[in-house]
Amino acid sequence: MMCGLLECEICGIAMKVYLETLGCQMNRLDSELITGQLLGAGYEIVDAIDTADVFLINTCSVREQAENKVYSRLGREAISPRQRIIGVLGCMAQRCGAKLLRRYPCVDIICGPGQLHSLGEMIAQAAAGNKSVACDPDRKDGREAFERNSSIDSLDHDRDTKVGSSAQAYVRVMRGCDKFCTYCIVPFVRGPEISRSPEAICEEVKQLAGAGRSEITLIGQTVNSYRYTAGDMSTRLSDLLERLAVIDGVRRLRFVTSYPTDFGDDILKAMRDLPNVCRYIHCPPQSGSDRVLRAMNRKYTRAEYDNFVDRAYEIMPDVSLVGDFIVGFPGEEESDHQASAELIRRSRFKNSFIFKYSTREGTVGAKTLEDSIPFEVKRQRNNELLAVQAEVSLAHFQSFIGREVELLVEGPSPLSGKPGNVSDDPNCVQMLGRTTGDHITVFQGPESLAGQYVKARVTSTTAFTLFADLVD
Ligand code: SF4
User: Fold this and answer.
1) 282 alpha carbon to ligand 1 midpoint, in Å?
2) What is the pLDDT of residues 392-432, one digit of tens each?
3) CB 109 within 8 A of CB 122
4) 293, 324 in Cβ contact below 8 A?
5) What is the reported pLDDT for 374?
6) Does residue 257 have a cis bond before it (omega within 30 degrees)?
């Protein structure tokens, strides 16, 4: 291998690290924390792989497609003439472990999600020619083994608040999952559900808000199940929201992703009463049919999901609800599929993420369910749900026309400068911002507005984007 510890022994230049991230918000947060950790340790982070001495890929195991992408990246590295240290991090590292080293001898580091604090040392080891594997305990070893041997929040405490977006930040409030949906790998790769202490979370949010990160998104696999108990004191998500909402500089507070049965009125009322908590709930139903929900081991019925939706609208008539659905689940019949379409209409979701079922190795479903629905049927059901959702979304977005909204401006829209999106004013481009309900909104404005809050009036809409004029 070409280099010594953090820098090349010959030229003394810091080692360059290229980090690629796949998957969910949890991975994006982990990558941000890794970046801070490596910068603090003297590594340089680069935007392109060509010049990198170290290639790290933070992986996702939730869908087959995400894993195939990693195999293809490693396959390309295996035949690359440029020798560099290669590290596989996150869920796939945890799921496959040392097997990946055997399949891809070019890989030097396998690091599970609870071991990322060791990464600097593992890179140094790789630079000295030693491969290393650091995975979390096996789920069968129990919760105590995780609490002892896997510190998923060890990077969160001293995070570099300058790494990442200037206005937004994710904050982990819990890890793992105890729900065991039959199609999902998460409980096996992220371990048991463990909540962080409210003190640690408040301290982290204070530091982020002090550094100008005014929109905080609390994340957890089932974030509304958050519960931290110390002695006879228990803190629920609603209590945590109350503590965080009063921190100076926190202008928007969100949380994702929620599980339907854990949505008590205490959380809905906290959202209604705390002005800086966004009225946005991502709470996946996955199916509208009781039969399919049972097969998925989702621990609620359709009636219970409907009850959650009714309570949410009763307490916050203007809340934005977002769903997830899996189509073509083993045994799903046309009537089950129609029940999902009806659920989208009844729940008036702002938008839904819709996925076609595929078997994931390592899940309960892989052992007990046959992937019985032909691909063509899955594709058709997927398209049908997308069409129903587009109708429902359009009605939802149209209700904003003429209204004034507050936007947190992210920057120029991806279509800015493209035909039809060129501003008449040479000082303006098409900018993109989001409302408190997470509606993507575009408007003409100067690029200098990025990271700021502005007021805009909605003039027109599609099913997924609001168009607005700046109010001042
Ligand atoms: S609730 Fe179900 S789908 Fe969500 S992370 Fe847990 S097991 Fe996976």
Assistant:
1) 13
2) 999 999 999 999 999 999 999 988 777 777 777 888 999 99
3) yes
4) no
5) 97
6) yes
CA of 284 to the centre of ligand 1 (A): 10
- SS3 state of residue 179: coil
Q: How many whole angstroms separate alpha carbon 419 and alpha carbon 410?
A: 21
The two structure tokens encoding residue 225: 């199940």
Residue 184 Cα: closest atom of ligand 1: 8
pLDDT digits (tens, 9 = 90+) for 62-108: 988 899 999 999 999 998 888 899 999 999 999 999 999 999 999 99
What's the rounded mean pLDDT across residues 232-238? 97
pLDDT(58) > 80: yes
Q: What is the pLDDT of residues 188-199, one digit of tens each?
A: 999 999 999 999
- State percent of the chain over pLDDT 90: 85
d(CA 195, CA 198): 9
Residues 6+ apart with CB under 8 A from 163: 32, 35, 36, 39
Atom of ligand 1 nearest to the CA of 177: 6
Task: Give the separation between CA 91 and CA 292, rounded to whole angstroms.
Answer: 27
E strand spans, 279-387: 280-282, 320-327, 351-356
Best CA proximity match to 153, nearest among 110, 199, 210, 113: 113
Q: What is the DSSP letter of 7?
A: B
Ligand 1 residue neighbourhood (C-beta within 6 Å): 177, 179-181, 184, 186-187, 221-222, 259
- Smallest CA-to-CA distance from 214 within 278, 173, 168, 245 is with 168
